[in-house]
């Protein structure tokens, strides 16, 4: 069949060997007699860790074999959901057709693989807007942040002008909450969510010789810390990873999770205040000696328009606030609570302790303890890895 050592390592799911062959310069995109690359084989066999390593080493995700199959085709044919999701995240094109004119979705439908069909569907409106997690990562962009900031600032200016003469106390509350929201947004965009530091001198072969494949992030070339996850939009591992917020163009993790919750809470209050101010315009008259010449009809039109905008924002923001309130109470991140196939259990601590743990940043001392724990299991993992290779 024309198989070489990398093909065999991919079939047997030995990322340790693949890392070694990469280190000595062996071609990771070699093809056998059927045109299959190592990534084709690991995808078809459902070997997640080999597929992850090959993708991190920048092998082609969309190369086709003699039948026109990409690795994504073979992952779907083999009903390997986890590998299929990995390939999509890593940029595999879902619309490539084989020599029979079939896409990956066609094979999923033909075989009745419901989970794969759901994962291969195009992103919904809620996913595009960032209100639901999505599989396909978007290119990082500041446009969602600019749009959201523009809505808040325009609401702050326009509603402030038209509502101040109807309810000055409410306008002051709205102004204060808007300023706080804008400041929190600016902080979250520029903040470090808890990126796990990289060591440029670390070699993948050394990591795989000392740790289990599931403890390694080959993209970052590091050993994972508990509760961390690699963000495929920031291209970094994040401690206590919650989610990647498209509106902030940043991850939400250990170092900004509490600030993000505060942002959601004050934004929610701000939206309610705007709605109440708009309602107040319809049921009240201007205060005497208000000093402006704005017609009441114009105020009604502006109030109606912004009431609709704020109502549109109220429900998704309320859902996000409720979700994170529930997460904080049980001591889990969004990623831990919704990740498929993960058996994460609720924290056994009481609610108040969970809130403190979720809001407070990881200390340097905790990081040193984690590092020490990994070093203590180094020798045990080395023996197990060598045994698997043999």
Automatic annotation (TrEMBL):
EC number(s) per entry: 2.3.1.225
Protein's UniProt name: Palmitoyltransferase
Sample GO molecular function, one term: protein-cysteine S-palmitoyltransferase activity
Reactions catalysed, as given in the entry: L-cysteinyl-[protein] + hexadecanoyl-CoA = S-hexadecanoyl-L-cysteinyl-[protein] + CoA
InterPro entries tied to this protein: Ankyrin_rpt, Ankyrin_rpt-contain_sf, Palmitoyltrfase_DHHC, PFA4/ZDH16/20/ERF2-like
Top-level taxon of the source organism: Eukaryota
Record remark: domains: The DHHC domain is required for palmitoyltransferase activity.
PROSITE patterns given in the database record: ANK_REP_REGION, ANK_REPEAT, DHHC
PANTHER family: PALMITOYLTRANSFERASE APP (PTHR22883:SF43), ZINC FINGER DHHC DOMAIN CONTAINING PROTEIN (PTHR22883)
Limits of the Palmitoyltransferase DHHC domain: 212-339
Pfam families per UniProt: Ank_2, DHHC
């Amino acid at each position: 069949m024309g198989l070489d050592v990398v093909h065999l390592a991919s079939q047997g799911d030995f990322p340790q060997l693949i890392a070694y062959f990469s280190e000595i310069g062996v071609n990771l995109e070699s093809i056998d007699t059927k045109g299959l690359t190592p990534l084709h084989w690991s995808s078809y066999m459902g070997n997640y860790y080999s597929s992850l390593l090959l993708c991190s080493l920048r092998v082609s995700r969309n190369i086709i074999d003699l039948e026109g199959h990409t690795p994504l085709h073979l992952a779907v044919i083999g009903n390997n959901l986890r590998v299929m999701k990995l390939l999509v995240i890593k940029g595999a094109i879902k619309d490539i057709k084989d020599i029979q004119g079939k896409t990956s979705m066609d094979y999923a439908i033909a075989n009745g693989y419901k989970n794969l069909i759901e994962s291969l569907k195009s992103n919904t409106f809620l996913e595009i807007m960032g209100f639901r997690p999505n599989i396909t990562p978007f290119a990082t962009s500041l446009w969602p942040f600019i749009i959201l900031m523009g809505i808040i600032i325009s609401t702050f200016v326009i509603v402030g002008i038209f509502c101040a003469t109807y309810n000055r106390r409410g306008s002051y509350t709205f102004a204060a909450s808007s300023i706080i929201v804008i400041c929190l947004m600016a902080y979250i965009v520029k903040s470090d969510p808890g990126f796990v530091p990289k060591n440029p001198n670390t070699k993948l072969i050394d990591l795989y010789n000392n740790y289990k494949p599931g403890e390694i992030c080959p993209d970052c070339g590091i050993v994972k810390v508990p509760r961390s996850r690699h963000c495929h939009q920031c291209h970094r591992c994040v401690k206590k990873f919650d989610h990647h917020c498209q509106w902030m163009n940043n991850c939400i993790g250990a170092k900004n999770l509490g600030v993000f919750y505060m942002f959601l809470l004050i934004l929610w209050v701000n939206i309610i205040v705007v709605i109440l101010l708009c309602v107040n315009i319809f049921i009240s008259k201007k205060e005497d000696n208000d000093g402006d010449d704005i017609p009441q009809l114009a105020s009604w039109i502006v109030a109606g328009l912004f009431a609709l905008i704020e109502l549109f924002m109220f429900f998704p923001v309320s859902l996000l606030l409720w979700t994170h309130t529930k997460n904080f109470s049980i001591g889990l991140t969004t990623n831990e609570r919704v990740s498929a196939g993960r058996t994460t259990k609720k924290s056994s601590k009481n609610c108040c302790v969970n809130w403190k743990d979720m809001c407070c940043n990881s200390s340097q001392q905790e990081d040193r303890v984690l590092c020490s724990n990994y070093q203590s299991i180094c020798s045990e993992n080395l023996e197990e890895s060598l045994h698997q290779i043999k």
